[in-house]
Write a structure and sequence with these properties.
Helix content is 28%, strand content 19%. With 290 residues, it is an alpha/beta fold. α4 crosses α5. The model has no long low-confidence stretch (mean pLDDT 89).
């Protein structure tokens, strides 16, 4: 295994009507001691990246401690957030007891390029006051949802053009722009009730155009996709090498204490006795449909 998506909370104040996690203000945090058990377990499974999600992960009561514990174990950390002030929940740099480079990938759930620019500028100003953060490398990637943020190929093309300003370095902070990630719509939880309409043919035509350009837009924006986009547009991605969900990655819901091949899989396995349940999961993970 290479990377793990880890749900650390089901609490979220943003109320997105299409949320495929169904997270609400009543959602609970995962227990910190259980999370520490998971981190130790993952250390022995050749996992190098842990991507934190929710709910809104930055609002977990012990989010700061969670980051510290992950870096103690030498993980690369990922984070998917809709919190404009996520950086204010980072630990004081003095709590990191080494000088090693620390990498954090931040997936921003915003389609408005100006909002993202404002978030990054504010983050740089806020964290640059703490010079210890010069050891951090922040990779920023907006997440764009099919049918929500773009409904046809032209909307997607126009959207990508607006992100052309995002590539720079600052004196105390290294910020790298790493393209955008296109997410396929997931009809799970509230996503089942939210009606989305999009021109699949138009999107496919634009993706085929991007494919000829190695998935780089006219203004130099790299385009990455999730497994749902790959499945939705087989004509575009035939001949490309993609690994199926659960092959090199897996998903842990630390709130419900469950494990599955992906965050949107309908088939969950218990995850209490970590080693035994993980072995059971590995044996059965591909025997059921996603």
């Amino acid at each position: 295994m290479v990377a793990v998506d880890l749900k650390i909370t089901d609490f979220c104040p943003f109320g997105c009507p299409f949320c495929y996690q169904g997270s609400t203000l009543k959602g609970k945090d995962a227990d910190l001691e259980y999370l520490l058990e998971i981190f130790d377990f993952l250390n022995g499974q050749n996992v190098f990246e842990v991507v934190l999600g929710g709910g809104e992960p930055t609002l977990h009561e012990y989010f700061s401690s969670i980051l510290i514990e992950l870096y103690k174990r030498k993980f690369t950390v990922g984070l998917t957030t809709k919190n404009k002030h996520f950086y204010k929940h980072f630990p004081e740099y003095k709590k990191f007891d080494d000088k090693e480079k620390k990498y954090i990938y931040i997936g921003l759930s915003f389609s408005n390029a100006e909002i993202i620019k404002e978030i990054i500028d504010n983050m740089i100003e806020y964290l640059s006051e703490e010079k210890g953060y010069k050891n951090f490398v922040f990779t920023i990637r907006p997440h764009l949802i099919e049918g929500v943020d773009f409904k046809d190929g032209k909307e997607l093309s126009d959207l990508l053009d607006r992100f052309s300003f995002l590539s720079f370095k600052k004196k105390y902070l290294s910020v790298v722009y790493d393209g955008v990630l296109l997410l396929g719509y997931k009809s799970v939880e509230r996503g089942k009730e939210y009606i989305v309409n999009f021109d699949k043919q138009s999107i496919e035509e634009y993706l085929l155009y991007l494919k000829k350009k190695n998935f780089v837009s006219d203004k130099g924006i790299g385009v990455l996709v999730d497994s749902v986009i790959v499945e939705n547009y087989p004509k575009v991605f035939e001949g490309n090498l993609f690994f199926r969900e659960g092959e090199y990655t897996f998903y842990i819901d630390a709130v419900k204490r469950e494990i599955s091949i992906s965050s949107f899989s309908s088939h969950k396995f218990p995850f209490n006795d970590l080693y035994r349940d993980f072995e059971d999961f590995l044996k059965q993970r591909f025997s059921l449909d996603v």
